Amino acid sequence: MEKDRPKVGVGVMIWKDGKILLGKRKNSHGAGEYSFTGGHIEHGESFEECVRRETREEAGIEIKNIRFLHVANVLSYPPHHFVNVSFIADWESGVPRVCEPEKCESWDWYDINDLPSPMFKQSAIGVESYLTKKNFHDKK
What we know:
Elements: E1 7-16, E2 19-25, E3 34-35, E4 37-40, H1 47-59, E5 62-75, E6 81-93, E7 104-110, H2 121-132, E8 136-137
Parallel strand pairs: 1-6, 5-8
Antiparallel strand pairs: 1-2, 1-4, 2-3, 2-7, 5-6
């Protein structure tokens, strides 16, 4: 059945001045948790197109220097199952703002060694991947 298939999601850890951008989620799975920009890849869309689009739609900023971080097979927030492909990028321009107030309540820059809690599972895996250099994470 189509509903039983995993969805493909992307996330992007955006760096500026030694800090990463996180938003506080609302009205969705992971409400109240802190997350990278990201979402679902659209039919025919490249990974780069997707992370740029999601970042513009969610935070209103431009990014550059996009590179691969990790891939994860994530069973979380039942009944959700995602194959998540995460990237790292550098901030290019703009001031983060809440562009989708129904999905996010705030954006801010955080030191990777002093992150807010709780973290959205896919983003927490991304931070772990960045710190450990492990680029593959299977279901837990």
